[in-house]
Structure formats: structure tokens, C-alpha cells
Design goal:
The protein is built from 17 helices and 12 strands. By secondary structure, it is of the alpha/beta class. The protein has 3 domains: about 1-130, 3-Layer(aba) Sandwich (Rossmann fold); about 155-325, Alpha-Beta Plaits (2-Layer Sandwich); about 325-430, Orthogonal Bundle (Arc Repressor Mutant, subunit A), CATH 1.10.10.60. It has a 5-stranded parallel beta sheet with strand order 2-1-3-4-5, with helices on both faces. Strands 7-8-6-9-10 form a 5-stranded mixed beta sheet, sandwiched between helices. Strand 11 (about 425) and strand 12 form a beta hairpin.
Length: about 425
């Protein structure tokens, strides 16, 4: 329904406009009111809140320009059309300044008045549609935030609520096809030794891991740039959980996905998250119920230097078998974490593990894709970065993590991180 106010001191003019409105073929119904002077026009406008006002300039009491000025001051002013016998430029300029959309000279033809009214109605329709769309968007945002909060809350209780994820995907992505990945980070034993600082360190690592996932995880998985996705995190009985939800299916083969996920987890450890034992699981909506328990299982099978990815519950036996077969290699990673600050070589580790140096070297390359020296250097650099983040100088950090040659430390840091240690601060590359 559209409300129209006709303000003119001539009754015939008001009747003519009313007649034009009556013959318009539009979907909307009209409620038409009349006023014979400016004071009455303002009173009628206050009562009925018209959408369109047709004004004459010369009227008793106050003129049409004064009425237009008063109406323009309202929070939601009506659309105003001036129909007058005065063709002075000053009047027209003043009317336009008050927001009048058309300035018609009497005697205006029926076609001119009809055209102006149709223009006003079209503006009203657009305005209403904009309000409707804004309301819909606002409601959708609110519902999305509610679904997001519900998913985060369920994650903190150790539940991956699939119906909530379904709803979130529909609201945020407008899609019924979605996939998700869960990262599970377990604090290492060394991190938990100091009970006073363990909680603060866990919160710091949680923030770091979630932020790192927001920046790198999507691209590391091979998701196309701009793919709609959500990342949020939670704590579950001392474990850090990070959930990535995105629109679409994961198209890569299982082996390739496993490699990509492990690449991201290795990047995490290199960035300073070595105190966490990391595991992960990934799946689509039809298998989403298994993802969280599989991720928790993966983290229990992993060790600080070797993350594990479990895709399905059926993968557990394979993962356990792999863990058993590589037990000695995993022990080597733990041994390196305990002795990286010392002056050590491959022979020292081989003797400690009761292996021949050549056999141990082959195992390291098979399991980690690198030899003893590279592995030791990367572990030392990862710990050096943590020290640099705490404000310790590059020279002191190099000595504390086991480098005896400052020049070699600088070259190794530059090769691995792509930046000089003196330029590295707080996990950022300058």
C-alpha cells in the first residue's frame, strides 16, 4: 500500500491528481489524502506518514517550499513532487535542495504527472527491496553466527555436531556439499613439567595454531583461492582442537591429502609449535561423525617429530602397525629433541639406540625424508626461533640451541627460513 498526500489550495487540481492516481494500473493500492494549505499539509503528513507528497508552492499559511523543507528534515522523508505555476529558477533550485524529485509546471499534462508518480513508485519499490534484502542479510548473519557458536561449543565438549555443520554450510556457503578437517594437538611431556606455566603455554599455542591454520591450512590443502571456509578452535581436556570447514569436496587422493596435511603439520612444528604432538583427520559430510575421534586417535599415535593422519577408523590398525614398525626411528626423533643442544653426531645417536650408523641413516631418510645433519639443524632452528620470539639475541639463541659457529647458524637460518635471524621477530618475517 502506498500513501499519497496532495497539497494544493485549488480543489480542481487535487481532484485531477486523484483522478490520475485512480487510473494507474499498478499492483499497489493507494490511500490518498488532501490538504488545502501548508499547515494542513504538515498536519496530514504527521498523521499518515505518506510515501509520496505532491506540493503546490503558493498556498495559504506556509508555502510548499517550507513544507518541503520541514518534510526533508524527517528521518524517513517522503518522495516529493512539486507541481506549480512558478517557473523561477530560484524556486526550482530550492526545491531540489530539499530533495524534491520532480518540478512540474502548471498546467502539467496528465502524462507528465503520471510519469513522475511512476518514477516515485519505482523508487519506493527499490527502497523497500533494499530494506527487505538488508533484513534478510542481517537475519542470515545472525543465524550463521549462532550456528558457528553452536559448532564451537560442541567442539569444546568433544562432539562434532554434524547437523550444526550442515546448517552452517547452508547458511554460510549456500551449499549442502562440504568437507572438514580436525587438527588435534597434545602437549608434550616436557611442556607439562612446569605446571605453573603449562596452562599459559597451552593457550598461547592454541592461539598460534588456530591463527596459523587460518593463514596457511586452506592453501596447504590445495583449496582454490577464495574458497569459502571457516576455522575455529577449542580446548578439550588439555588438547587443542582446530576445525576447518569449507565448501565442496576434497578431490585429492588419500595419499596426496595425507602428504599435504603432514606438510602443514611439519610447517607448524618449524614455526615453533614443536611442544605439541599433532594429529589430524579429514572427511566429507557423510563421514563427518568419525573425524573428531580419528583426529584424537591420530594425535595419540604421533610423536613430536612425526605427525599422524588417520582418515577412517579402519586406518587405525594400519597406523598402529606403521607406528610399531618405525618405533626405533621415532625413538631417534625423541632422542634428538632431548640432546639437540649438545655436540653430537650420527654415531652418538646410533650408539644410544643400538643401531649401526648406516642403518639409522637409511631409516631417518625413509621416515623423515632427510639425513641426520639436516634433521638436527631444523630442530635447532625451530628452537632458536622460539628463543628469538622471546627477545633473546641471535648470538645467544645460536649458542643455546647447540650451534658453535655463529656464521653457520646465520647461513642455516637463512636457508630454512628465508630471512636472517636478526630480522626474525615474533613469528613474523620482515
Amino acid at each position: 500500500m502506498i500513501r499519497v498526500l496532495i497539497a494544493d489550495d485549488e480543489a480542481l487540481e487535487r481532484q485531477a491528481v486523484r483522478h490520475i492516481l485512480g487510473r494507474l494500473e499498478l499492483d499497489e493500492d493507494f490511500v490518498v489524502e488532501e490538504a488545502s494549505n501548508g499547515i494542513e499539509a504538515l498536519a496530514r503528513a504527521e498523521e499518515s506518514r505518506p510515501d509520496i507528497v505532491l506540493l503546490d508552492i503558493r498556498m495559504p499559511g506556509i508555502d510548499g517550499l517550507q513544507v518541503a523543507e520541514a518534510l526533508a528534515m524527517r528521518e524517513h522523508p517522503p518522495l516529493m513532487i512539486m507541481v506549480t505555476a512558478y517557473d523561477q529558477f530560484g524556486y526550482a533550485r530550492t526545491a531540489l535542495r530539499y530533495g524534491v524529485i520532480d518540478y512540474l509546471l502548471k498546467p502539467a499534462s496528465s502524462a507528465e504527472i503520471e510519469h513522475s508518480i511512476r518514477r516515485a513508485i519505482e523508487r519506493i519499490r527499490r527502497r523497500k527491496e533494499e530494506v527487505r534484502q538488508s533484513t534478510i542479510s542481517s537475519v542470515a548473519v545472525d543465524m550463521t553466527q549462532m550456528a558457528y557458536a553452536a559448532a564451537a561449543e560442541s567442539l569444546s565438549r568433544g562432539i562434532l555436531d554434524v547437523p550444526v555443520l550442515e546448517r552452517l554450510s547452508l547458511l554460510a556457503f549456500q551449499s549442502e556439499i562440504w568437507s572438514c578437517l580436525v587438527l588435534a594437538g597434545v602437549p608434550s611431556a616436557s611442556m607439562l613439567r612446569d605446571e605453573e606455566t603449562a596452562a599459559a603455554k597451552l593457550q598461547s599455542l592454541r592461539k598460534f595454531l588456530a591463527g596459523f591454520a587460518r593463514v596457511h591450512l586452506g592453501s596447504d590443502l590445495g583449496l582454490a583461492p577464495g574458497t569459502a571456509q571457516f576455522v575455529w578452535d577449542a580446548l578439550l581436556k588439555g588438547r587443542i582442537l582446530v576445525l576447518l570447514l569449507w565448501r565442496g569436496e576434497w578431490k585429492a587422493a588419500t595419499r596426496e591429502l595425507s602428504s599435504r596435511i603432514k606438510g602443514f603439520l611439519s610447517r607448524c612444528m618449524e614455526a615453533g609449535m614443536s611442544p605439541l604432538v599433532l594429529g589430524a583427520s579429514i572427511g566429507e559430510r557423510h563421514s563427518a561423525g568419525q573425524i573428531l575421534p580419528c583426529a584424537l586417535l591420530a594425535s595419540s599415535l604421533a610423536n613430536p617429530a612425526r605427525p599422524v593422519v588417520v582418515f577412517r577408523a579402519d586406518d587405525v590398525h594400519a597406523a598402529q602397525g606403521m607406528q610399531k614398525r618405525s618405533a626405533r626411528t621415532s625413538r631417534s626423533a625423541v632422542w634428538l629433541q632431548d640432546h639437540f643442544m649438545e655436540h653430537i653426531g650420527l654415531g652418538d645417536m646410533a650408539r644410544a639406540l643400538n643401531l649401526s650408523p648406516s642403518h639409522l641413516s637409511r631409516q631417518l631418510k625413509s621416515e623423515f625424508g632427510m639425513g641426520f645433519s639436516d634433521m638436527l639443524t631444523r630442530i635447532r632452528i625451530a628452537h632458536a626461533k622460539s628463543l628469538l620470539d622471546e627477545g633473546i639475541s641471535a648470538k645467544e639463541a645460536a649458542f643455546l640451541v647447540g650451534f658453535r659457529d655463529q656464521s653457520y647458524f646465520t647461513k642455516a637460518f637463512l636457508k630454512i627460513e628465508g630471512v636472517l635471524p636478526s630480522h626474525y621477530r615474533s613469528g613474523k618475517r620482515k
